[in-house]
């Protein structure tokens, strides 16, 4: 089912398992009934349709720029926050399964979750060193306040659950514009 990562105390589960397990405040496992809707995580202007990066680093940078443009991240902190995401990505790829990548970082000094979704338009996808070796079509950038560990776990699980649905992914890839894509997130 899972594997040890080599980092003390860290056990990796496949992305398909993330939506099935959630940790309660007492540390116990609770059912995924209190999941966040993807429209609670992403705002309409957080969705970038037509992402055409040269590599995963450029994809992450483009999504950070989207967060700055949307006013979700202060421009003066963007390079610092970008470096935190790059550092996390260098330690272990966030390429999941079935065309999904979730580069993320727990950072100091932000008030709440900041998220951006990039939809890669190239049918060949993007190389992201994913678990299953498949090219990535959806890139989700998450910045989460470091002190909100439960939010971190919950958000990763809810994004993986919602975007692990092949019907949702197909509709996102077929979206004509960002507003249409955001509407698809309402059904995930």
Report on the structure:
The protein has helices spanning 15-18, 38-41, 56-69, 78-91, 149-163, 166-173, 178-185, and strands at 3-4, 11-12, 22-23, 29-30, 47-51, 100-101, 104-107, 114-120, 138-145. α3 packs antiparallel against α4. It is α/β, with parallel strands linked by helices and 188 residues long. It starts with a strand and ends with a helix. It is globular, with a radius of gyration of 15 Å. The strands form 3 sheets. Strands 5, 6, 7, 8 and 9 form a 5-stranded mixed beta sheet that branches.
CATH topology: Mannitol-specific EII, Chain A
**Average pLDDT level:** 83
Which homologous superfamily in CATH is the superfamily? Mannitol-specific EII, Chain A
Runs with pLDDT <50, length 5+? 1-33
CATH class: Alpha Beta
Number of domains in the coordinates? Answer: 1
Brief synopsis:
This protein is α/β, with parallel strands linked by helices and 188 residues long.
List the helices and strands and how they pair.
Layout: E1 3-4, E2 11-12, H1 15-18, E3 22-23, E4 29-30, H2 38-41, E5 47-51, H3 56-69, H4 78-91, E6 100-101, E7 104-107, E8 114-120, E9 138-145, H5 149-163, H6 166-173, H7 178-185
């Amino acid at each position: 089912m899972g594997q040890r990562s080599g980092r003390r105390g860290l056990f990796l589960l496949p992305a398909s398992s993330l939506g099935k397990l959630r940790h309660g405040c007492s540390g116990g496992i609770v059912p995924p009934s209190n999941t966040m809707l993807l429209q609670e995580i992403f705002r309409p202007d957080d969705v970038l349709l037509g992402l055409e990066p040269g590599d995963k680093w450029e994809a992450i940078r483009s999504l950070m720029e989207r967060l700055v443009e949307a006013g979700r991240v202060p421009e003066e902190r963007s390079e610092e926050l970008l470096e935190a995401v790059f550092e996390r990505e260098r330690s272990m790829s966030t390429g999941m399964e079935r065309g999904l990548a979730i580069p993320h970082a727990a950072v100091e000094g932000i008030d709440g979750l900041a998220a951006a979704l990039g939809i890669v338009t190239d049918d060949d996808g993007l190389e992201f060193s994913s678990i299953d070796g498949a090219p990535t079509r959806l890139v989700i950038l998450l910045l989460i306040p470091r002190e909100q560990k439960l939010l971190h776990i919950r958000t990763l699980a809810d994004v993986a659950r919602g975007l692990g649905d092949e019907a949702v992914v197909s509709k996102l890839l077929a979206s004509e514009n960002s507003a249409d894509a955001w509407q698809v997130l309402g059904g995930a």
